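--- STAGE predict ---
source: upstream dedup step, 1 unique chain passed
mode: sequence only
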Amino acid sequence: MYFRELCMKNKNSGLTKNLILTGVGGQGNVMASRALAGMLVDAGYVVTIGETFGMSQRGGSVMSHLRISPDAVKSPQIPKGGADVIVALEPLEALRVLTVYGNPGVSLISNARSIDPMGVITGERDYPSEETIHEAFARLTARCWIFDATAIGLVLGNPVLSNIVMIGALAGTGLLPIDRRMFAKEIRKTLSPEKYALNLKAFDAGCSMIK
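--- STAGE serialize ---
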């Protein structure tokens, strides 16, 4: 059952969907969260956004909390263990968020392409192996989708388009009441025709990755 249907069924219960979008500085995390919020507000939901920034100019952690309600403003901070959906632009950031905000019912969509944090670059720490990360994802989530969104962005001409690819993937899961029409309406507000068409391609590519 889609979230829109759940909201209609539980209109008086105050049902809220908690989504975290996480990545590192320079990946377009904030732009993605604002686009998601815009789509959902246009659809009639009340969306509260809380954002945290690490050393974003140096590839530090960036995390956006989106609390999506049919009828009420919520605290901008999702409680620990309270995420329903996590969308991660970087796999280690996905793991960080899962260990704090995850729960047995959480769904995860993660980019497979890693970006070494400063501790790994300086040799102070090791980046976990792909096998270790995937095993953790399987253990800590109810549902998980992993694919290389950065590679898709590169094919389209810009790796930062991975953020739009991930929005398309999110739409493809049906976990939130968003679709291509809503995304097209949202980005038409700010993008030139050329960028508009390119972002739609990125969205479609992400949606096609969900099976």
